[in-house]
């Protein structure tokens, strides 16, 4: 066992040792339950410090690849990451009697376009002639390319934005690779990166998105393989990136030619801001994901992913050995919704409604002295004195929100909660009273916010 591990190491840094062990686990040469040699034995054989091996072991432990069982030793872990360790699992409402769940991050069902006519027009749905048909309906690909923020070299359709991110990560990120994300970032993305053993580095944001100066600083320090961005309606902050910021970020990345850009445009057509992409400046290095879950329906389970053929081709080819393609019936429904004037008008109305709801709730909160952002999309990011106290206080009113900590790659200097403002259609003043009371609990009775709280949110 010792010879197997040390023989696989070609880079004697902590990262290199961890990567070698990870490769052996992935290849099945180190199976779940296998006891690893001691840190001192590995260090002696490789001629490195035990501290270096210990650091490698810590990296593997964080990634869920190995586990320590006290004096019994260190073992190769089962390959599945326990759900309770996922950031994503922490987002759901925990209130015992939730009457208003604003933790979900899902769109308002009543604002989604009606699928009835689209399904009728689809007819008998004979859209597949062979298992080797192209993965995207030709007519849908034409429409998608017309909508793309910059011309993609290749384009395919997958089962939602997270499926796209999962498949792109599997194609381009390896154990120990450095990956750059926004801070805060979407928890499922951080979970996906953790499952492959990536080292995630967060870059702070301002009102226009990721800060270019800090991105340059991070890329100067870490040999990153990819940068992940949300160009519009950033989840959780709602920030949308203007073209000027996209150009500034692209200018920074020009100096780092080996870094891939992956954009998650999850809000799609309900985003108020215009589509934007670094692909306009970096067409051979930008993968863009366009989701239709929030605009046209989560159960369509569709997102398009486009960019350089070396990445998109690898994603499409790998899918041939699994699902093969995303349902062409659902692709036909999406094509109809994207081209039917009535459906287009429904989505436009939803976009306007979400903007009104965000702005109304944000105004009410600001008038009560609460700091919050909700520039685009369906979410609102609210600063609170204490995350746990705020969530308990809201639960007492039957309101569930998402804690801010799972979104944070590194501490932000203040606690936050995420609220799905897009689901709030009425009683904004009453809700703002409850939210403000929870946000400013340590300062109750001070400032313009001191209004009596309603008994609950019913």
Automatic annotation (TrEMBL):
Pfam families linked to this entry: Aminotran_1_2, GntR
Residue stretches in coiled coil: none
CDD domains registered for this protein in UniProt: AAT_like, WHTH_GntR
Domain HTH gntR-type residue range list: 11-79
Record keywords, A-Z: DNA-binding, Pyridoxal phosphate, Transcription, Transcription regulation
Source organism superkingdom: Bacteria
Keyword Transcription attached: yes
Record-level Gene Ontology MF annotations: DNA binding; DNA-binding transcription factor activity; pyridoxal phosphate binding
PANTHER family per the UniProt record, alphabetical: HTH-TYPE TRANSCRIPTIONAL REGULATORY PROTEIN GABR, TRANSCRIPTIONAL REGULATORY PROTEIN
Family recorded in the similarity comment: In the C-terminal section; belongs to the class-I pyridoxal-phosphate-dependent aminotransferase family.
Record protein name field: DNA-binding transcriptional MocR family regulator
Organism, as annotated: Paractinoplanes abujensis
């Amino acid at each position: 066992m010792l010879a197997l591990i040390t023989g696989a190491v070609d880079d004697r840094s902590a990262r290199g040792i961890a990567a070698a062990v990870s490769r052996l686990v992935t290849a099945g040469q180190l199976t779940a339950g296998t006891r690893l040699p001691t840190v001192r034995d590995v260090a002696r054989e490789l001629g490195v410090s035990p501290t270096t091996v210990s650091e490698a072991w810590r990296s593997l432990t964080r990634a869920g690849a190995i586990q320590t069982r006290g004096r019994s030793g260190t073992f190769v872990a089962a390959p599945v990451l326990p759900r309770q360790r996922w950031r994503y699992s922490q987002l759901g409402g925990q209130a015992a009697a939730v009457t208003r769940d604003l933790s979900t991050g899902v769109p308002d069902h009543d604002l989604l376009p009606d699928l009835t006519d689209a399904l009728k027009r689809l007819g008998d749905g004979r859209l597949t002639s062979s298992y080797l048909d192209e993965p995207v309906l030709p007519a849908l690909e034409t429409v998608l390319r017309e909508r793309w923020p910059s011309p993609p070299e290749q384009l395919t359709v997958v089962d939602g934005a997270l499926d796209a991110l999962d498949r792109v990560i599997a194609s381009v990120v390896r154990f120990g690779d450095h990956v750059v994300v926004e801070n805060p970032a979407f928890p499922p993305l951080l979970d996906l990166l953790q499952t492959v053993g990536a080292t995630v580095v967060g870059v702070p944001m301002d009102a226009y998105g990721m800060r270019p100066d800090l991105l340059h600083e991070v890329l100067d320090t870490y040999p990153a393989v990819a940068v992940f961005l949300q160009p519009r309606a950033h989840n959780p902050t709602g920030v949308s990136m203007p073209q000027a910021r996209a150009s500034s970020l692209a200018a920074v990345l020009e100096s780092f030619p080996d870094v891939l850009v992956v954009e998650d445009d999850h809000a799609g057509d309900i985003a108020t801001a215009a589509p934007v992409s670094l692909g306009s400046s970096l067409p051979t290095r930008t993968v863009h994901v366009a989701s239709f879950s929030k605009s046209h329906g989560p159960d369509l389970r569709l997102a398009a992913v486009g960019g350089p053929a070396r990445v998109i081709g690898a994603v499409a080819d790998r899918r041939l050995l699994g699902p093969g393609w995303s349902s062409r019936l659902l692709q036909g429904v999406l094509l109809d919704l994207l081209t039917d004037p009535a459906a287009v008008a429904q989505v436009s109305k939803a976009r306007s409604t979400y903007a009104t709801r965000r702005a109304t709730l944000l105004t009410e909160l600001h008038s009560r002295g609460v700091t919050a952002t909700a520039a685009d999309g369906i979410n609102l990011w609210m600063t609170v004195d204490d995350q746990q106290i705020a969530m308990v206080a809201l639960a007492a009113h039957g309101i569930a929100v998402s804690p801010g900590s799972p979104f944070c790659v590194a501490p932000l200097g203040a606690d936050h909660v995420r609220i799905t403002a897009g689901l709030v259609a009425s009683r904004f003043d009453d809700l703002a009273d409850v939210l403000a009371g929870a946000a400013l609990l340590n300062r109750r009775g001070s400032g313009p916010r001191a209004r009596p709280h309603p008994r609950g949110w019913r």
